[in-house]
Amino acid sequence: MKVNSQFDFIIVGAGLSGLHLSYCFLKDEYFKDYSFLIIDKEKSKKEDNYFSYWEIGDVKG
Ligand SMILES: Cc1cc2nc3c(=O)[nH]c(=O)nc-3n(C[C@H](O)[C@H](O)[C@H](O)COP(=O)(O)OP(=O)(O)OC[C@H]3O[C@@H](n4cnc5c(N)ncnc54)[C@H](O)[C@@H]3O)c2cc1C
After folding, report:
1. How far is the CA of 30 from the centre of ligand 1 (A)?
2. What CA–CA distance (Å, rounded) separates 33 from 6?
3. Which one of 14, 18, 27, 56 is separated from 42 by 20 to 30 angstroms, measured CA to CA?
4. Which residue's CA lies nearest to atom 29 of ligand 1?
5. Whose C-alpha lies nearest to ligand 1, atom 18?
6. pTM (predicted TM-score)
């Protein structure tokens, strides 16, 4: 398999922000012909970022 060594965009960090950004790029027709590389310093993710709460209703200061 030939692996690309050049990419149009490199996203550093496959955490919440990096993956959300990647998702938005994938969904956006404008970027359909661009190539992306996502890199992360961790080889595998520890399951230490559990999203455990959601707030419902108005958020007022
Ligand atoms: C235990 C815990 C529970 C949480 N619960 C909630 C919750 O219930 N609700 C909520 O809204 N938020 C919660 N959070 C907060 C939420 O996880 C963070 O706000 C969110 O993950 C931040 O996103 P981020 O993309 O900035 O960072 P991260 O999601 O941490 O992603 C950063 C990524 O960058 C990688 N990285 C770092 N340095 C490098 C480098 N030099 N090169 C390559 N890759 C690198 C990291 O390995 C990581 O994968 C919780 C956090 C923790 C720790």
Report:
1. 28
2. 14
3. 27
4. 15
5. 16
6. 0.81
* Distance between CA atoms of residues 26 and 28, nearest Å: 6
Closest CA to 6 of 29, 37, 27: 37
Cα 16 to averaged position of ligand 1 atoms, centre (Å):
6
User: Ligand 1: distance of its center to the CA of 2 in Å?
Assistant: 32
pLDDT tens for each residue of 1-32? 567 789 999 999 998 899 999 999 999 999 99
Please give the C-alpha separations between residue 16 and each of 2, 3, 4, 10, 42, in angstroms, as whole numbers. 29, 26, 25, 16, 14
